[in-house]
Amino acid sequence: MPFSARLARALASLPSLPSLLPRTSPPAAPSAPRPAASRPLAPLPTARVLHLMLPLLLLSAVLLGTGMPAAQAQPLVASAASAASAAPAISYADAVASLKQLQAEQDRIKQQTSTATSNTQIDTADTATEALSGDVDKLIDALKPQRAQIQAQLDVLGPPPAAGAPPETPAVARQRSDLDARRDQFDAVLKQAVAQKEDLANLDQQYAKLRRGLLRNQLALRSGSLLGPSFWAPFHSPQQEDIDRLHKFFGQIAAQFSFAWEDGRRLGTVLLLGLAIAIWSGGRRLLEYGVAWFCLNRLPATRLRRSALALSTALATVISTGIAVQLLYLAVTRGEALTPALDDFAAKFSELAMTCALIAGLGRALLCTRHPSWRLPAIADPVALAMRRFPTILAALLLVSGTLEQLNRIADTSLQVTIFGRGLVALVVALTIGATLLRANRARAELAAAGEQPEARSTLAGLIHAGVSLAVIASLAALLIGYITVARFITYELVWFEIVLCSFYMLTQITRDAFASLFSTQYRSGNTIKHLFGLDDSHLEQASTLLSGVGVAVLVLLAALSLLTGGFGTTPSDLFDSLLTMLGGTKLRSLNIVPDRIVNAVLALAVGFWLLRSVRRWLDNEFLPTLGMDPGMRASLVTLFSNLGYVLLVLMTLSLLGVQWSSLAWIVSALSVGIGFGLQEIVKNFVSGLILLTERPVKVGDMVSISGVEGDIRRINVRATEIQLSDRSTVIVPNSQLISQNLRNVTMGNSTQGVATLMLTFPLNTDPEQVRDLLLNAYQAHPAILEKPAPSVTFSQLTPDGITLSVTGYVSSPRITATTKSDLLFEILKQLRAASITLASPQMLMIQNAPEAGAAALPAVTGTKPAG
C-alpha cells in the first residue's frame, strides 16, 4: 500500500465535507439488540484470538501491533453471480444470463462509487469489486471446458471436404454447422467476460484516484486551532443530534450488559470477568516467571538468555491481554450474536487493546528496570528508570482515546465531534512521547553533570531521536494552527514507527544470539551438528554468520514492508496480504515472475549448485584419475566442465523463473554496450581462458617463461592464470597475454629432460684439449648429468680476446637445470685453479695526455693487462 493510501486509510472514518451541511433527515439509528429468545446461537469467536496468536508467535513481532482481525465488512451488495459458480459445465443460456447479472452488478457498483464521499464507502465498493471479479473468473473457468469440448468434437469431424472430394453426408454437415455456431456463441460470451474482467481491473485505478482526491480534501481541511473555542465546542456545548446518536449506541451497550447480567447468567458473567482480570494482571506475571525459569535453566549462558527473556516478556503481555479480551467478550455476549454495530465496535476494540498491550510489553521488555543485567539495549539505569512508566501511560491513553474515536465512528457523529476526538488522540500521544524524550534527556544531563558517562549512542540512534522530536513538534504545531487530521496522522505513524523499530531491534538480537548459540561448539547443539554433518569449527562459524545475516536481511525486508504498507491498527493478515500483493504484483508479473516460480527457482539453484559441486569432485578425485590423464589435463577438463555447468545453471534458473528473453532486451542491449567499451578486457581474458582450456598450449604443471617471468602453472582460471615462481611467490598473468605474446613452454610435449649448458672464455695461450678434458670429467662426474645423451664440448669462438668453449649435458628434468649448473660451476672453478688455468680478461685501453716539457716521456698507450 503506498504512502498516500496509508494516509487515506488513516482518515477512513472521517466524515466527508458535505456532512457539514444541515441534514434533512437523521440517519437511521443502530438497531437495538434482539431479545434473548430471538437470538440465534453463534459460534464462540475463538478463531479471532487464534487468528491473532498464530501470526504473533510464528511470524514475528514486527508483524505485531494489532489484535484480532476486524469483523468481516458487510458486502456492498449481494453477489449476483450464483449461476456462475464453480460448476463442471454451464449452458449457453445460463452463461448469458449470468453475464447479464454480473454486468448489472458492475453497473450498480459504478453508480454507488460515483456518489461515494468517504473512504469507507470506497473500501466497501472495492471489496464488492473483488468479489465480483472472483465471480467473473468462475464464469470464465466454467465456459472454457465447454468451449474446449466443442472444439474437440469439431476436430473429430475434421475440416469440410475440399473441392472435388466426395461430399459428406447431410447429417455430418449439419452437425459441423451446429458445432461452429455453438463455438462462436461461447467465444462471444468468453470475450465479453474477459472484457468485463479487464473493466473491473480498471476500477482499482479509479478507486485509487478517488482516495487521493478525498485525501487532498481531508488534509486541506483546516478545522480550527486546538486553542480556539470551536475545537472544544463538542465538549461544553454538544449538538443534540450527536447526543441522541451516542445515547442510542450506549443504549445498545447497556442492553447487552443487561442481557449478560440477567438471572441465570450473572454468576457466569462474574466468573468470566474475574477470570479475565486475574489473567490480565496475575496471569501475565505467572507466564513471565515460567518463561524466565525456562530461559535461565534451559538456555545456554549466552546473550540468548537476555534476548529470549525480552521477547518472552513482550509476548506474555500480548498473550495475557488477548486471553483477557476474549474472556471479556464471552462475558458480555455469552455466546450470542451481537448487533452489527456492537460487533464492529468489539472487533476494533480488540485490535486496539492488542496494539496497546504490545506497546506496553515492548516498553517493559526493552527497559527491564527490575533486572538491569537482563536489559537488552545499552541504556543507563537512570535513563531507563526515568522512562519506565511512559510506555504503559502511552498504551492506556491510546486505549481510551482510541475507544472514543471508535465510538464517534460507529455512532456516526458529526464532523466537529470526530475532529475533536482525533485532536485529543493526537494531543495525548504527542505530549506523552514528548514528555518521554524530555525525561530521558534530563536523566542523561544529570548523569553528565555528576561526572558519569551516559550510554554511547550511534549516529543512527541520534538521527532517530532527532526525527522523533521533529515529528512531535510538527504534530503539536499542526494542532495549534488547526490541521487536526494531519496531526493525528503524524502521531499514529510515529507510534507505528516505534512499534516496528522496537520489534525489529528485539528480533534482530534474538536472531543473532540464537544462531550464535546453536552453532557454538561449547554447547551440545553445536557439537551435535558438527559430528552429524562432519563439519569443522570454521564451517560452523561460517554457517552461524551466514544464517544470522540471512535472518537479519529478512527482518529488514519485513520492517521495510511494515513501514511502507502498514500503520497504526494494521493487522498481521493485512501485512501478509500486502506482501503477497507485492510479490504477485504487476511489476513482477511483467517479467512473468510469480512466488511459486521464485520458490522453484531457488530450490533448483540450490540443488543444481550442490549437484555441480558433487560431480566436479567425482570427476577430479575418482573418474578422471582412472583414465590415466596427467594432472594438467584433468584440471583443464574439470575447470571447463564447471564453467559450462554454471552457465547452464543460470539459464535453468532464469527458465524456471519464467523470465522472457524479450522482456530482457534492454539488459542485453546494455550488456552489449558494456562489453564493447568497459568489459572488453574481461571478455577477452574469458575467451582466452576457454582457448587455453581447449587448445591447451599450456596446461597445469607446465614450466613456462613469459615476459621475463618463469615458473610453473598452478591454476588456469576464467580470467587469469596463476604462475608459481621458484621463490614460491605467485604471479597472476591475464589469459590474453598467454595467447597474444611469445610464450616459452619448457615442458611442452611431455619433455622430461633439461639441458645444462655453460660457455667459458679462456686466454689464447690456453691448451683447449686440456680444458675440454677437464670440463668433460666435471660433467661426467656429476650425478645429475645423464650418460645418454653424453656430455659434449664445442669450440664455439676464436677471437682476439680468447677462445670460447661450450659444454653441454642433459639432466632428468628442466626444473633441476639451475641447481645442476650451479654445482658444475663450483666444481669447474675448483679444477681450473688446481690446473693453473685462468679465464680470459677483457683488454683495457688507457689514454693519457702528453707530458709537459722537461717531463719524462710516458707512453701514450699502455699494453694489455695480463690475463689472470
Automatic annotation (TrEMBL):
Any one cellular-component term (Gene Ontology): plasma membrane
Gene3D superfamilies in UniProt: 1.10.287.1260, 2.30.30.60, 3.30.70.100
Domain Mechanosensitive ion channel MscS: 682-747
Domain Mechanosensitive ion channel MscS C-terminal: 761-837
Ranges of biased composition (kind: Pro residues): 24-33
Annotated TM spans: 267-287, 308-332, 352-369, 419-438, 459-483, 489-507, 546-568, 598-615, 635-657, 663-683
Coiled coil: 92-119
A single GO molecular function term of this UniProt record: mechanosensitive monoatomic ion channel activity
Ranges of residues in domain Mechanosensitive ion channel transmembrane helices 2/3: 639-680
Family assignment from sequence similarity: Belongs to the MscS (TC 1.A.23) family.
Name by which UniProt lists this protein: MscS Mechanosensitive ion channel
